[in-house]
């Protein structure tokens, strides 16, 4: 059975890395001794090794060790044999480019569809959707494709941000950007605020966390859904 | 001689479309009777026709008519024969994809290098740089390449935004994003705040407007330059 946590962010303001996700991680990774970490998004240009150390720190309390996917000679086999997978945030273009180059995007999809527990944060959540086309990141590299795993049948906008009241900045709001996406695409988009995550169990996708999420469907006015709502019908 | 205005934004908060740029436009388009408008960035999904009408409104006061590039059977020839060119803002991915598909990116470069006056705002400014890889826009479509005109020998980040003091949002600041760009690229980046523009005359590139601009060079701490500074050495 598919078991997935797709979180808007790894870290809440003023909290430790992954702190608010610990209860969800305990459930998702029950019985798991080692998680394979996908470090390719490299936030701030951090090295794969250093990023893996940071991830390991976040799993220590659960008694789970973390090994970076970049350390394996055969990453396809590493994913096949993984007890659990975690993809950290950073730059989504870099993450997607690297996964496609190494032929790993479909492998992630395949093993997670077969039941390997998966957690993503931010960029790692973006790749859970059908495409990365609702990322907030800068196109610092050119990926061979914008397609991602489609583990959920819609797109996600992590770090979803409401318009800032009184702002005099003329750049587009997040909502305007997602509406522009819908002038070119019909894929629904879940705007996931920091502190929210999607919990996938088999065919059920549930919004978790304290906040509502903002749903964008092509041709409809955006609307809010409460925590606890199921979202699999969006696909 | 190259004559270019690359503006951060078309519109300042509380002002009319293009209002603050009118003096610069008068100089740039001296003697010009008709400007060819490139509407492909389609802000908010507006039609090419409607966007061209908006642009025409911005040029009315100067006694200059505006014709949309999309109305020509032969847009390559239309650019060749243009007295002046204006590219409006919107989604940079859509603009760049369309220009590459139609084989127009190199044509814009070619005629502007030969002296056709060019003005860009926002996305239309992004394509003045070497690549579109420092855009703020969402990748709503997949362009065949991120390369742009290279009319200036660096990249531009329009709508440059300083970190918001006291923000508890954990998404990356603009500065963090540009620094991530420099983990993968060495192209210098000019962070152009709203109200600023670059004025290119031949080989001289001058920062105009009331504000400073923030310069990002790979391996250096970012720094501010005053209005009136020349920037051609960055290339």
Automatic annotation (TrEMBL), chains A, B:
GO BP: any one term: proteolysis
Q: Which Gene3D superfamilies match?
A: 3.40.50.880
UniProt-listed InterPro entries:
Class_I_gatase-like, Peptidase_S51
* Pfam family for this entry, one: Peptidase_S51
CDD domains attached here? GAT1_Peptidase_E (cd03146)
What are the protein's UniProt keywords? Hydrolase, Protease, Serine protease
In Gene Ontology terms, what is one molecular function of this protein? Answer: serine-type peptidase activity
Family membership, please give it.
Answer: Belongs to the peptidase S51 family.
**Record protein name field:** Dipeptidase E
């Amino acid at each position: 059975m598919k078991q997935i946590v797709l979180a808007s962010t790894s870290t809440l303001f003023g909290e430790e890395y992954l702190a608010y996700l610990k209860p969800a991680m305990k459930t998702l990774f029950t019985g798991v001794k080692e998680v394979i970490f996908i470090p390719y998004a490299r936030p701030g240009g951090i090295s794969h090794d250093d990023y893996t150390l940071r991830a390991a720190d976040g799993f220590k309390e659960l008694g789970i060790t973390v090994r970076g996917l970049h350390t394996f000679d055969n990453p396809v086999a590493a994913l096949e044999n993984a007890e659990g997978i975690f993809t950290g945030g950073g730059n989504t273009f870099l993450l997607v480019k690297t996964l496609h180059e190494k032929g790993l995007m479909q492998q992630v999809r395949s093993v997670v569809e077969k039941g390997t527990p998966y957690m993503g944060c931010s960029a790692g959540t973006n790749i859970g959707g059908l495409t990365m086309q609702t990322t907030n990141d800068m196109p610092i590299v050119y990926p061979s494709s914008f397609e991602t795993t489609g583990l959920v049948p819609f797109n996600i906008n992590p770090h979803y941000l409401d318009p800032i009241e009184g702002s005099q900045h003329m750049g587009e709001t997040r909502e305007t950007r997602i509406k522009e996406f819908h002038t070119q695409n019909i894929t629904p988009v879940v705007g996931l605020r920091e502190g929210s995550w999607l919990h996938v169990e088999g065919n059920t996708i549930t919004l978790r966390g304290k906040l509502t999420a903002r749903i964008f469907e092509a041709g409809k006015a955006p609307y809010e859904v409460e925590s606890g709502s199921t979202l699999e019908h969006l696909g």
